Amino acid sequence: MRCPWCGSDELYTKYHDEEWGKIVTDDKILFEFLILESAQAGLSWITILRRREGYRKAFANFDYKKVAVFTAEKVEELLQTPDIIRHRGKIEAAISNARIFMDIQREFGSFYTYLYSFMPNKQPVINQVANLSLVPAHNALSDAISKDLKKRGVKFFGTTICYAFMQAVGMINDHLDACHFKFPKAG
Fold first, then answer.
1. Please, which of 60, 126, 129, 131 could form a disulfide with 173 given CB 3.0 to 4.6 Å?
2. Which domain holds residue 104?
């Protein structure tokens, strides 16, 4: 059994089975999800998931050092790219967020270290979830992280988007208790 939110869409089930809720420690992947989740604001996750490869190409394979130096001309080019969400604010935020991401890395050693500084005992939270209706849209942790990131200048990353990000990268495990993917299988 798997969590029913992904339905039967092959791309969605693959994402659920192979990525969602698995702990991510790699800053490059964390940056990828920062961009993708920020792009999701106001949209469905499947909309972004279907454009993931377009984002990968448009945003330099999620190389935050390259994205941080994108120019105004690059923004105009991206606004003409049909494989991403062509929203000027979100595109400009991705560039600005890349710069802030690197500032956080310099301050904390890694973005991962920064994120886990908010977590209880610096560990992921594994929630007991019997029913999808019990999964919150945000919690005190996502409130605190999004508030701190907003203070640092990160845009399109409110508490609801932050909570979705935390679920995606395994900071919060909200797989249903009966889901076969609740706990990663040994390699």
1. 126
2. 4-173
Q: Is 53 tagged catalytic?
A: no
Query: Mind giving me the DSSP string for 151-180?
Result: HHT--S--HHHHHHHHHHTTSEE---TT-T
Residue from 10, 6, 38 nearest 21 by CA = 6
pLDDT per residue over 150-163, tens digit each?
999 999 999 999 99
Is 18 catalytic? The answer is: no
Active-site annotation holds for 37: yes
CATH number of the domain that residue 112 is part of: 1.10.340.30
Q: Does a structural domain hold residue 97?
A: yes
Per the domain annotation, does 181 fall within a domain? no
Say how many domains are in the chain: 1
Q: Which of the residues 12, 15, 19, 92 is marked catalytic? A: 15
Q: Which residue out of 12, 20, 32, 37 is catalytically annotated?
A: 37
Mean of per-residue pLDDT scores for the chain: 96
